[in-house]
Amino acid sequence: MSTELLAPAGGEEQLECALRYGADAVYVGGSRFGLRQKAQNFDDRALQQAVARVHAADKRIYVTLNAVMHDEDIEPLRTYAATLEAAGVDAAIVSDPAALMIVRKVAPSLRLHISTQASVANAQSARFWYEQGASRIVLARELSLAEITAIRAKTPPELELEVFVHGAMCMAYSGRCLISNYLTGRDANRGNCTQPCRWGYSVVEETRPGQVFPLEEDERGTYLFNSRDLMMLEHLPELLDTGVTSLKIEGRMKNALYVATVVKAYRQVLDGAEPADFLAELETISHRPYSTGFFFGAAQQSVDEAQYLKTRELVGVVRERTVQKDGRCRATFALRNRVQTGEELEVLSPEADIRRFPVGTLFDEYGAPVQVANVATRSYQIEVPFELAPYDLLRKKLNA
What we know:
This protein is an alpha/beta fold. It has helices spanning 12-20, 44-56, 74-87, 97-106, 123-131, 145-153, 179-184, 236-241, 256-270, 279-284; strands at 4-8, 25-29, 60-65, 91-94, 111-114, 136-138, 160-167, 203-204, 212-213, 229-231, 246-249, 290-291, 312-323, 329-335, 339-340, 344-348, 355-358, 362-363, 369-370, 372-373, 379-384, 393-397. Helix 5 links the parallel strand 5 and strand 6 (136-138).
């Protein structure tokens, strides 16, 4: 198959955006055994609906089963693996050998992808997993382009290779971190990371208890473990030359605006657009400073800052629209952040360039005019001077 663009879907809204904005496949968390327990994961019924929606679009859906398995997990995993197979999921993403063995036995039609949590960093390990029944390896994030090329040359051509191309990086090797469990009792390897690597740290010298020394001249401390985000949009030709099968976007904890923006940028560039046309768009979404990870050498750490950067905020997700006789469009949207009349909004669409318009009259869910939309549990309506479509996203510029 051609190189796959694989997008995260932490919930139904993100899944729909991934499909509409150009992903070839999505990966999601089910009700158990994934590494993002705080995401809006899919229960069994929602997962069945998601599978039907993805397959109707002629695309693929993978489910994460990559938590570290304890003895208490084994029997529930047998049942859950059978549930995934019955739902029609295309593949399970696993890292624990027990999970691989169980899926092979109770859900033999379910393809097996080996998670980056398994830290596959050489061809011998890749072949080992292939011989155990894996159809795809999600390679360790710590590999260079040259190393990936070498692994491709030394592994069976039918074994698929997947690499991360965009999103958050982890200070621990392929995400196998113990800090969260140690400091908070919440195990990152079972889906409950508190991201303590983003916190500020200082040094205490053992003979001077209570005297705290910052590692740099910064009143906030030093963010020693805080990795920069990965962004390989400008280097897709080099990635494709390695022979990888799938390009993976990180972000099952991210919102619809993140998913839509990133998927659209990578889709357009894979289809021939110039990266320069989309670099500014990738600055609009929530991110830490970008880098190229380990692809060209040692990964950079953002040791002097912890804040996320963004220039745009999601206002709403278009659900329905009606084109009026005068050509204007009245759109119903699910509110995500406050908006009021007089503000300028931008529209992100799968194919069109960014469009802008001033907010005129807003209407509440009963059709009554309002000056401010600020109740996130409600739907609102807005009139727009051009036509919109479901899952177009309304966003606004943040004040500098």
